[in-house]
């Protein structure tokens, strides 16, 4: 006997409210760091902004659905309320597909700036194409699973044609397979890419967070898939589908938060948070020794674009290197006294003028400190 007074909407409401607040805060911090603090806003940041906008829309659909009766038994609602709740449930599911696509594209493009070998570069590009195509096809399949489209939530429309429940579950499995494969790919691929790089504990912690993000995302997908596999009957989907809807929010929400928070290291540096201050050599000016990173073969795997253009926003920086392994670029000796006193100008004058002093004892903090923290880490692969 079904208890019509049961209501599981509180789980949806709490999850959506908490994750929406946390994702907005984390993306706002990411945007401030990349657009204002380091002035280095790139494609992956735009994609994350799109993902956040879609997640906000998805949470809005959940809120509207709860007001109509999402989380309650279908039999406990009037027909108009049931139709309204089913509509917002369907729309929230459709936006989940788009949301995960933009999150994965953002993360893959971020990893492209770490890829200096062709095998990693092309592996990531193939994954980007697969994710984009697969997600787009499933999104439109989900939208048009019923003809006319409103018949997906309004069963009173005469002459409507819809796919079976088994086909809906099969589509969910298809999306989950792609999601799990790419989750593990993006979690494990950075290991060989940066295996030989000497990094500080803070940089290693950042990489661990990124790897953990991919592993957690795959686990969240499996949990969501378990609940979806139990939905063999649509007659009470507003109540029975609540656990799956909760994980539909958790998976993209946690992904947005984690992938955004790992980019705010320059802000922590600017705030002089202990453990995120760079060694003095991290603010050394660009010189001939570190101005143009080299890649295997002397070029870039992606074509004419220079390695520095691709890698300049990588979260693994000169400041992350162990100073015992990389003591910094060699300092040129000061020009002769005669030249300092106004003698004939030589090339040493212009080169010496590039050497900007670092504040003694780390006192004070300038924009240059933040920009130095944004220098990309490159390895001599010649």
TrEMBL record:
Q: Using the record's annotation, list all stretches that form the Rhodopsin domain.
A: 29-269
* Annotated TM spans: 12-33, 45-70, 90-112, 124-144, 173-195, 207-225, 245-264
The domain of life for this entry's organism is: Eukaryota
Entry-linked InterPro entries: Rhodopsin_dom_fungi, SAT4-like
Q: Which UniProt keywords apply?
A: Membrane, Transmembrane, Transmembrane helix
Where does this protein have compositionally biased stretches of type Pro residues? 326-336
List localization entries: Membrane
Q: What is its main location?
A: membrane
Chain intervals with Basic and acidic residues compositional bias: 306-325
| Pfam families reported in the protein's UniProt record | Fung_rhodopsin
Region of interest (Disordered), residue spans? 279-382
The GO cellular component terms are: membrane
How does the record classify its membrane topology? Multi-pass membrane protein
Query: What ranges does the record list as Polar residues composition bias?
Result: 279-290, 344-353
Q: Which protein family is named in the record?
A: Belongs to the SAT4 family.
Protein name as it appears in the record: Rhodopsin domain-containing protein
Q: Species name for this entry?
A: Coniochaeta ligniaria NRRL 30616
């Amino acid at each position: 006997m079904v208890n019509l007074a049961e209501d599981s909407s509180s789980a949806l409401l709490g999850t959506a409210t908490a994750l929406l607040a946390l994702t907005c805060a984390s993306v706002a911090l990411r945007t401030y760091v990349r657009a204002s603090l380091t002035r280095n806003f790139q494609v992956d940041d735009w994609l994350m902004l799109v993902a956040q906008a879609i997640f906000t829309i998805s949470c809005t659909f959940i809120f509207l659905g709860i007001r109509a009766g999402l989380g309650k038994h279908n039999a406990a609602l009037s027909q108009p309320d049931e139709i309204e709740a089913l509509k917002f449930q369907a729309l929230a599911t459709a936006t989940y597909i788009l949301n995960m696509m933009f999150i994965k594209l953002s993360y893959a493009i971020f990893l492209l700036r770490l890829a200096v070998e062709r095998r990693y570069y092309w592996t990531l590009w193939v994954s980007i194409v697969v994710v984009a195509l697969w997600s787009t096809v499933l999104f439109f399949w989900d939208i048009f699973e019923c003809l006319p489209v409103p018949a997906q939530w309004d069963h009173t429309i005469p002459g409507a044609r819809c796919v079976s429940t088994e086909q809906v579950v099969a589509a969910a499995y298809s999306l989950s397979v792609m999601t799990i494969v790419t989750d593990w790919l993006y979690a494990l691929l950075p290991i060989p890419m940066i295996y030989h790089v000497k990094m500080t504990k803070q940089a290693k912690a950042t990489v661990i967070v990124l790897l953990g993000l991919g592993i957690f995302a795959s686990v969240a997908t499996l949990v969501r898939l378990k609940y979806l596999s139990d939905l063999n009957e649509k007659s009470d989907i507003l109540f029975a589908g609540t656990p799956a809807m909760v994980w539909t929010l958790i998976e993209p929400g946690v992904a947005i938060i984690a992938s955004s928070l790992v980019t705010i290291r320059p802000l922590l540096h600017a705030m002089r948070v202990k453990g995120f201050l760079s060694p003095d050599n991290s603010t050394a000016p660009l010189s001939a020794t570190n101005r143009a990173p080299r890649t295997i073969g002397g070029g870039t795997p992606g074509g004419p674009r220079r390695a520095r253009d691709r890698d300049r926003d990588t979260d693994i920086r000169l400041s992350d290197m162990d100073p015992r392994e990389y003591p910094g670029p060699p300092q040129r000796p000061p020009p002769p006294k005669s030249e300092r006193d106004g003698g004939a100008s030589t090339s040493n004058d212009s080169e010496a003028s590039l050497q900007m002093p670092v504040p003694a004892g780390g006192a004070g903090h300038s924009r240059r400190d933040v920009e130095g923290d944004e220098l990309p880490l490159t390895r001599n692969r010649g």
